[in-house]
Amino acid sequence: MPKIARTLVGFGFIWMSAWATFGALLGARLNQAIINEDKLWLEGLQRSLLRSAHAHMNSMALALIALGLSYMAARRRASERTLVCSAVSALGGTVVFGAGMLLEAFYPPIRGEIPWAAALTAVGGVVHLLAIGLWGIIFLGSARRRTPTWIEPQ
């Protein structure tokens, strides 16, 4: 397995572990809010954003692992340069998106302005989605119908 594929799989598992731990800490904070009857936190935007970050990051980690595990098959369909570019974009987009979601929870938007944390999240998300989409196109592009060798062309 090439180094970039190992990096995708390894980083995906580390990323998932980190965000699963974050989810456990978020659950502990939720229990504390329930015990203290902190309705502001229970119903607040910050909790919603942190829950969303936890879920998004775990799903993005699974996508990175899938990219790494399918790397060898993708190698038969696309150039190494395309695959490495897509893999690095997926990794970078994942990190930027995660950082942006965390920052959004602690720096809420101001009315009338585009929040810089939301813009960061959007950039990371778009980069990640484009990289994953390119990976899908690589596999779909090779799915063209081929005439079986036993059928003679007319």
Q: In a nutshell, what does this entry contain?
A:
The chain has helices at residues 3-35, 39-42, 45-69, 71-75, 80-106, 116-141. The protein has 154 residues and is mostly helical. It has one domain (3-141): Up-down Bundle (Four Helix Bundle (Hemerythrin (Met), subunit A)).
Report on this model:
This protein has 154 residues and is mainly alpha-helical. The chain has a single domain, classed as Four Helix Bundle (Hemerythrin (Met), subunit A). Helices cover 78% and strands 0% of the residues. The chain is built from six helices and no strands. It is elongated, with a radius of gyration of 20 Å. The model has no long low-confidence stretch (mean pLDDT 86).
- Specify the overall morphology: elongated
User: How much of the sequence is in beta strands?
Assistant: under 5%
Q: What is the rounded distance between the termini? A: 43 Å
Q: Helix coverage percent of residues?
A: over 70%
Strand count: 0
H/E element order: HHHHHH
Number of domains: 1
Oligomer: single chain
SS class: mainly alpha
Q: What is the annotated CATH architecture?
A: Up-down Bundle
Query: Number of helical runs?
Result: 6
The gyration radius over C-alpha positions equals: 20 Å
CATH topology: Four Helix Bundle (Hemerythrin (Met), subunit A)
Low-confidence stretches: none
Mean pLDDT: 86
Largest sheet: none
Reading off the top of the CATH hierarchy, the class is best stated as Mainly Alpha
